[in-house]
Amino acid sequence: MAVPKRKSSRSNTRARRSQWKTTAATLASCERCRAPKLSHRACGNCGTYDKRQVLDV
Amino acid sequence: MPTPTKGARLGGSPAHQRLILANLATQLFQHGRITTTEAKAKRLRPYAEKLITQGKRGDLHARRNAGKVIRDKGVLHILFTEIGPRFVNRNGGYTRITKINPRPGDNAPMAVIELCEPLAEQVVSEATAATKKAAKAPAKKAEPKVEAPAAEEAIVEETVVEAEEVAAEVVEAAGEEETPKA
Fold this sequence. Notes:
By secondary structure, chain A is of the alpha+beta class.
């Protein structure tokens, strides 16, 4: 089995990890309460989806 | 050649998976609406709908077949006397899955799965919730009106709003006390 010959340097490790990035979630606004929400999900603020009450708020 | 099951495998073994699905189905028929992970909801939907079809059929054979899964006789009774007849005019599509925000803690995608025709007890609980909201509503309506004209008096408004919230809570508590008697 192939194994690393050398310990990778701190510099290389950090250079590699500098490319780990997150992206902001794209949000839509709720039809009922205009709060930002994830699309295709019930609104966490008012608990509605497609103007139907799904969650108890 | 056997057809693979659609969706995620649950639990650690086939027996565990059977138990998870049976328990989820039992809870769904008992409460009419349950919150679970998206993967479990997706597996549960066809499983629960086949059981409801048994409930619509309504004969002894169907009851015994469903009884293999729904071990609770009370829930089995609900399935055959309440849920089955409720879906007479519907050919499939008895349940509805709505995705909700991910679970805090492990960020698991969550969903609510519910019967499309709500149960009787569910309707009652929703009605009590609606009356609570009605009690809250006047307080909520008052908020934006006060906030809109003058943003400078924010501190004063907050105290007013807090007072209103306290009033609403008192009304709620009163409503909760009333409901068990009725």
